[in-house]
Give the backbone structure.
Amino acid sequence: MAHPKLIIISAPSGAGKSTLVKYLLTQNLGLEFSISATCRPARGKEQHGKDYYFISENEFKQKIDNNEFIEYEEVYSGCFYGTLRSEVERISEKGRTVIFDVDVVGGLNIKKQYPEQSISIFIAPPSVEALRQRLHTRSTDTPEMIEKRVGKATLELEYAPQFDVVIVNDELEKAKLDIEIVVRKFLNK
């Protein structure tokens, strides 16, 4: 089987990556979402096997020991996120392109493993202050968690130059157009 093409979308929390990934999935581009695993609890209407694979911290660590992850990270103490190898295989076997919605370090780790067959796209907020405002508006986190995310985002923004493409999500409709153009070009290579 030919090597699958991989589209890696990364961003600080609240920059809009999930919104842009959902948009791309509606554009008939032959993409399929790689569902990440996490040991954090579901938020809002998130569903196991659709938004994430919600597993216990012990089960996550067992999968790490078994080398079942392409990448994983302890994003916050005791809170792991990762991409299972089985996800890439599951999607590739269908002849579809894998699209990832992953944190910045995870995105760079996937790119390192698949340098020729992937494109890495960094979604940047217009500013750290705009990001803080979006996280408040989203209303899914406590004020303490928002500040933790903003602090992490400030560090993550330093990784942007290591990505193939950086898209600033200042105006959502423009960001949708920009990312679709980038993805179509990559798929037609």
Q: What stands out?
A: The helical segments are 17-25, 57-65, 85-92, 104-113, 128-138, 143-156, 172-187. The domain at 6-187 is CATH 3.40.50.300 (Rossmann fold).
